Fold this sequence. Notes:
CATH class: Mainly Beta
CATH architecture: Beta Barrel
Structural class: alpha/beta
Largest sheet: 5 strands, mixed, barrel
Number of helices: 5
Order of helices and strands: HEHHEEEEEEEEEHH
Radius of gyration: 22 Å
Helix content: 25-40%
Strand order of the largest sheet: 3-4-5-9-8
Shape: globular
Distance between the termini: 66 Å
Amino acid sequence: MKQNWKTVTCFLVAISLTALLVIRGQKQSKNEDQPDVTKFPIAEYATRIATALTEKQKARRKKYNSRYAPVISEASDKIFLVSDWDLRLPALPVARSAAVIIGEITDAQAQLSEDQTKIYSEFVVQINEVLKNDARAPLVVGKSVIVERSGGRVRFPSGKIVVSSTNHQDLPRIGKRYVLFLTHESPNGDDSEDFTILTGYELCDGQVFPLDKPVSGHPIMTYKGTSETSLLNDLVVALANPSLSQSK
Length: 248
């Protein structure tokens, strides 16, 4: 009888461990496509506040002001912004893009808005190719351009880090190469002189990885894991027929 009880106990323990591993595996699978916010650009609060700014930098920070959001402080929790930015967004949004480029991220800096209610990041992109150029602010191969996106981190003197992110969006990484779709849309919907990242694809070892993490079935995800050649060929076709790309 004791032997049977030991057998049953071992069997139940084995089942429990298996269930735990399955749950753990499901959580990892569920989160594998979530943005890694620990890789977001980070700003030191004291440094950013004390730094003297140019007029252009002041204008950039002012764009991100919000009359409704509270001031970000050491008491702030993680900031998660929800928008429908990816609703009806095609996989290759060339019609909505002021410019489409291929380039490498050489620098990244998180910033606070003028009123300290928003965190956004600026990325320096070394331009390798210009697939669609902007008539208002033409881009040049071999030169760099600063592009922006909401999200980033701020570290306060206490050591606390406040993270801001937007649903389904990730931020590009330094040293990585991307196809970037750029617009002049500012956070409040107005037109801006600066470039903002609409979406993009990382190009690595001949393969394609979407920068953003929309829900399964979104058009952007059709290129996940495909070849770089396939994406670029489709992009050439889309650029020649912008209206057709809107439905794909």
